[in-house]
Specification:
The complex is a heterodimer of chains A (382) and B (340).
Chain A lengths: L2 E3 L9 H17 L22 E7 L6 H20 L8 E7 L4 H14 L4 E4 L3 H13 L4 E4 L12 E3 L4 H16 L3 E7 L2 H16 L3 E8 L7 H9 L4 E3 L7 H10 L8 E3 L19 E2 L15 H10 L28 H5 L2 H4 L21
Helix pairs in contact in A: 3-4, 5-6, 5-9
Chain B lengths: L1 H14 L2 H19 L4 H27 L6 H18 L5 H23 L8 H20 L10 E2 L4 E3 L2 E3 L3 H23 L1 H11 L1 H6 L4 H27 L1 E2 L6 H14 L5 H19 L7 H15 L11 H5 L8
Antiparallel strand pairs in B: 1-4, 2-3
The chains are: A alpha/beta (382), B mainly alpha (340).
Amino acid sequence: MTHRKSDDPTPVEAPRRRRGFLFGASALAAAGWTAGGTGSWFLPAAWGQGKKTIRMGIATDITGPIAPSGNSNWQVAQLAVEQINAAGGIAGRPVELFLEDTASDPKAAVANVRKLIQRDKVDVVLGGITSAMRQAIKDPIVNRGRTLYIYPQLYEGQECTKHLFNTGPTPAQQIDELIPYLVKSVGKKRFAMPSANYVWPQLLNKYARKVIEANGAEVVFEEYYPLDQAEYSATINKIRDGKVDCVFITIIPPGLQPFMKQLYESGFQQRGGVQACVYFDENSLNYVAPRELEGVYSCLATRSARSCSPRTRRSSRARSTSSPRAARRPACTGASGSTRRRSTRPRATSRATRCRPRSTRRRSTRAPAAAPRWFPASGTRR
Amino acid sequence: MSNASSTPSARGARVGRVLPVVELAVLAAALVAPLLMTASPELVTLATNVLILSLLAISFDLCWGYSGIMSFGQALFFGVAGYVVALIGRDLEFSHGWGTLPIAMGVGLLLSFAFAGFLLLGRRTPTVIFVALGTLTGAYAAERLVSGWQYVGAGNGLSSVKLLQWGELEMIEGPAFYYMTLAILLVAYLASRYLVRSQFGLVLAGMRQNEERLAFFGYRIQVFKALIFSFAGLLAGLAGALFAYHQGFIGPGNMGPGLSTSAVLYALFGGTGTLIGPVIGTALIETISYVLADQDAIKQYWPVILGVVLLVVVVFKPTGILGFFVSQRERIGSYGGRRK
C-alpha cells in the first residue's frame, strides 16, 4: 500500500513483525487516511474470478523523435487486440487496451506510465521502444507498480528483472548471422560503428566487435554521440579517410536522419560502401528518405510461413538477412521484434535468454503469415 | 519607540491580512488533499510531484523574487543532487533519509556556492543578464555532460533508484510519501519565510529595489546574493533528491534548461516575491497540464494551450495569479522586529 517493509512479511512470519506491521498500519490510519485492505498490494484482487476483461496498457512513443515507430506499435496493438477479441479473447476473456504516451522522453514516461498502473489498473504493460525507455519505466511498472511488463523489441540482452519479459532478439541472435554474412558473402572488411550513447548500442557493439574480429574483419572506429546530435561531418570524414566499407549503424532517431543524409551525400554508397543496421524495418521509411536506405543490410527478419519450418530455417534467415531490399519490403512488423523467430541454439547464452520463461521461447509452428501477434492467442496456448 | 509603534503595527495588521490566509488555506488544502484522493492513487502521485516541484519553484523565487538573481540553473542543483542520491543508492546501497537527504542538501549548497563564487563574487560585474546566461550555460553544459557520461547512465539516466528508507520503512509513492514531502516542504517553507522576513531579508528586498543604494549604505551586496543563492541551491538539491526517490528515475532531462525554465514559469505564474506564489503556480500548472494531457480532443495541442495561458498571465499580470488577491504593498511586506 503506502509503505512496505524492506522484506516482505509472509503469513508464517514471526508474530512480532506482524504486530509491528499492524501497529504501523494503525498509526497510518490514525494519522488520517483509511488503509484499504492491507493485503491487497501483495496479490492484486483483479487476479480473482470477478474480473472479466484483461486490461492491457500500451506505453509507447506517440510523440517525439521515435513517434513513427510508436504510432505503428499502437496501431498494431489495436489490430491484434481486435483479432484476439474476435477470436474469443485470451482464455475467454476479452482484452481492453489503454494507451499512454511515453513521448520519447524517459522523464515524461515515468510519470505517464504510472497513470496506466495507478489509474487504469492494467494487468500488463506492453511497450517501450528504446532500451533507455525500458530501463526508465521498468521500475515504476514492475517493482513499484507490481504489474507485469512485456518489452517486445530487439534489445541488448543482460536484462534479468522479475516480472519483465523480453520477447525480442538479443545481440547474439542477430549479430551471429549478420556479421559473418557481411564479411563472407558481401565481402566487407572494414567496419565503422557510429552509435548513440546509451545502453543498447554499447552492449550490442561490444558483442558485434567480437564477432567482426573473429571473422577476420576489423573495426576502424567505434564512437558514441548524444542521441540528438545533428552534425556528423567529422564522423563522415573518418569513414572516408578510414576506407570504411561497412557502416554498422546504431544511431537512433533523432540523430539517425542527419547521419544517414550526410552519409548519403558524402557519396559513401557510390563508392561501394554498405550500411548495416539491426533495427531497421519498414518503419525506417518514416524516418529517412528511400534513396538513403539503398544498400542497407538489416536482420530484423519478418515472420514468414517458410521460416516456420525447421528444415529451411537457416536458409530463410540468410535470405531475409541478405536482401538489401528488406527495408522496403512490406512486412508485418509494426511491433518490430515481437514476431521474430529467435535462435534456440545453445550458443545464444545471454542470461536474459535463459531467464526468459519457456512460454515466450516456444514458437507456434502453425502461425498464420499475415497477422502480427503481440500476445500468444488462446488458440496456441496449451 | 512606544509612541511610534502604534502606527506601523496597525498598518501591519491591515496589510498583512491576505497572505497568511492564503498560506493557511494552501496548507489546509495540502493536508486534506490525499484524503479526497483515496480512490485514485495517481492523483496522490501527482500531488507529491507538485510538492517536490514547489520546493524547486520556491528556490527559484528566493533568487529572483527576493534578491533579483535571475537563475536559470536551479534545475542543475536539482539534477545533480538527484544523481548523487541515485548513485549512492546504486553503488553504496544506501538510501536512509537521515543520510542521503542532508548529502543532497550539501551537494546543492556546495554546487550553488561554487556557482555563486564564479558568477557573483568573481571579477565581472554580475548583471542580471550575465548571471542568467551563466546559470543557463551551466545547466546546459551539465545536461550535455551527463548525457555523454557512461558512469551515470549517459542517455539512459539512472533508473530503478533505490527506495528512500527511514529505518525499516521504505517509502514508495503514495500518501506516506506525500505527507513526508509535505512535512519537509513545510520546514523548508518556514525556514525560507523566517529568512526573508528577517533583517537579512530586508537587505535582500533593498537589493532587489536598488542595488547601488544598498552598496552605498555599506552592504557587500554580492555576499548577500551569494548566501541566498546558496540557500536556494540547498533547497533545489533537497527537491532533486526527493524527486529521484519519488520517481525512481533521474535523467539528463531533469537537470537541463527545460526544467529550469519550468521552475521560472511556476514562480512567475503563481507570483514571485511571495513564497506561497510558487507553490500555487506549481500546483496550477501541473494540474492544468495533467488535465489537458488527458483530453483526447486536444491531446496534440495541450502544450500550446498551456503556453498561451502562461504567456497571457506573465504579460498581463506580472505579479502572477497571487496578484489578484494580494496587494503590491503586502507582497513587498514588512520586515524585521515587528513583534518586539
